[in-house]
Amino acid sequence: MIHPRIDQLLENVNERYALVIVAAKRARQINNYHHQLGEGTFDENPPPLVESRSKNYLTMALEEIAEGKIKYKYK
Fold it and tell me: What is the domain extent for residue 24?
């Protein structure tokens, strides 16, 4: 079973395409945050916004979206 479920994710993001883009971008930010821990610079990449059992950055990003911690808008 995939967690979080797609129907939970689509409550916070309108389209599947937008979900993929938002999740990938946030996963990259989390990855960059973890790589910058040793350097002490956290300017552009905020830490994960949820407690996760997973070490997978994409799963962390999807959990943040499911909980409504990530907002996006089209320009």
Answer: 6-66
